[in-house]
Amino acid sequence: MKITNVDGPPGFKEFDDIEDRMTSEHVEDVREIFNTPLTGSYNWDYTVADNRIKRLYELGKELNWNGSIDLDWSNHIKRGDLPVKPEFDDLGNVYPEYNDMSEDEKREVSWHASAWGLSQFLHGEQGALLVASQLVSCAPTYQAKLYAASQCFDEARHVEVFNRYLQDVMGMSYSISPSLKALLDKGLTDPRWDLKFIAMQIIIEGLALAAFQSTKMTTSCPLLRDLTHYVIRDEARHVTFGINYLEDFNKTLSEDEIEDRARFAYEACVIMRDRIQNYELGKKFFGYSEQEAREAILKSGVNDDFRGLLFNRVMPNLKKIGLLTESVRPLYDELGLLEYEVAPSDFEIDWAEISKPLESSDEIETQAEEQAEVIKEMFHNH
After folding, report:
1. Residue 35 and residue 249: Cα distance in Å, rounded?
2. Which one of 172, 186, 262, 369 is CB 3.0 to 4.6 Å from 325, fit for a cystine?
3. Residue 6: pLDDT band with limits 50, 70, 90
4. 373 pLDDT tier (thresholds 50, 70, 90)
């Protein structure tokens, strides 16, 4: 499989099978070096505590799934299909020009929109894999190291399945959004292990859970619905691990250290709130500038439900670990995010829910439809 530049915006790639076109320049285009002052730690205390972290680690071992076996890779949409359910096709609310297109043109635009979003999933999962690998070295306790190692395998599986879906089904991909890249860089390049936990387990995984949940509810592709459902099961454990671990650790920090971490989390939330958006679609198909595309997206309100789904998870979790301090609360209020702090936190684990065996495709479809109705009612009434 080979990636070539085709007619499209910067960062757009389409897959073909011509391998002999690869040059050393292509290799340099897809590899980026970063440096981080990572401080690792041994831990010679192998005492096993019977606590939540151990139980989450055991669940991770029990509930591993195989992307090659547990997913039906033949049950996917084709290029002529609309990749989202028609009732969720809201591109016309963002770009009025979309409404005047033919059905074939609409499907093509929607296909690119889906490829962009799935590409961000892929890039985000690689970032999660890299941060999790760092946590194996720098997490201070034995059980945290074990869990971080199990999370590495989860993230590797996620990279594998999203990459395969983009190549085998979508046939195209996009480069990473600059804002998502900035969010990943914050976690990867900070030398403090607990800020990596905050960036990854609370912020990035919270973003991922919301994005995957949205995709599971709106996609018209049975394969992608099942894929995101299985990924969600893994990510829910990761977020729960971060909250349970950080809640106890943060109680040992000084007031200044807590404020530093609270500001770090706030800056990450600012990046997420409005900026991880697909401006390339507006530029490629409708001739919008990046600023015009951004204004069109914000004005349309199409991301309001997603933003609610996202911060409905992130804000109560930040509160639980002590990072909604008095100094940052007014800042969140200015962003219109403080209202979400009253939602349930992922700290309280529904063990029965996260311990269930893998569901069938029919069960996942029914669940996705029920969740979509609940989410629509929740935020439309809000």
Report:
1. 27
2. 262
3. very low
4. confident
